[in-house]
Design a protein that fits this description.
This protein is mostly helical. It has seven helices and no strands. The longest helix has 26 residues. The model has no long low-confidence stretch (mean pLDDT 96).
C-alpha cells in the first residue's frame, strides 16, 4: 500500500506514466486546477507545503522503485508550478505566461538550477531544482507584469 501511495503521489495520479513530456502534462494539470478552482492565498500556501512535503517523501520512494530522478516523478513540476503562480493573480494570460516561463526554466535549467540539481541528490534534490525553477519563474513573471 505504501508503494502504491508513493507511486500515486510521485506521479501525480499517474500522469508521470504518460510516455512523453510527463513534466509538461503535470504542469498543465496544475495550471488547469489553479484556473478552475482559483484557490485563496492561504489554500495555495497549504498546497505548496503539502506538495513539497509529500513530494519529497514520494520522490525518495519513487527513486527506490524507478531509479534516480525518473521521468515518472512529476510531483516536483506540480510544486514548481504552484510556486510560479503564488501571489500572482489567477487568470488565463498569467497562467499561460507562468506555465511557459516555468517550463522553460525547468527544461533548460539555467544557473543556478542546474548547479543545485547536480549538488543535491535523492528525493530532496528532485524537488529542490523545481522549487527553484518555480521561484525564478514567479519572479520573472512579476517583472513582466510590472513592465506591462
Amino acid at each position: 500500500m505504501t508503494k502504491f501511495l508513493a507511486k500515486m503521489i510521485a506521479s501525480v495520479f499517474f500522469i508521470g506514466y504518460i510516455p512523453f513530456a510527463s513534466g509538461s502534462w503535470c504542469s498543465l494539470l496544475c495550471t488547469v486546477v489553479l484556473f478552475v478552482f482559483n484557490p485563496t492565498l492561504l489554500l495555495q500556501a497549504l498546497l505548496i507545503v503539502a506538495s513539497f512535503v509529500l513530494g519529497t517523501w514520494s520522490a525518495f520512494e519513487g527513486e527506490k522503485i524507478w531509479g534516480k530522478d525518473n521521468r515518472r516523478i512529476v510531483i516536483d513540476e506540480f510544486t514548481g508550478m504552484l510556486l510560479t503562480m503564488f501571489f500572482i493573480p489567477i487568470n488565463a494570460l498569467n497562467l499561460f505566461l507562468g506555465f511557459s516561463i516555468f517550463r522553460a526554466y525547468d527544461i533548460f535549467k539555467p544557473f543556478p538550477i542546474k548547479k543545485l540539481e547536480r549538488q543535491i541528490q535523492n528525493g530532496f534534490g528532485v524537488m529542490l531544482d523545481d522549487v527553484l525553477a518555480g521561484i525564478m519563474a514567479n519572479l520573472t513573471l512579476r517583472l513582466i507584469l510590472l513592465m506591462f
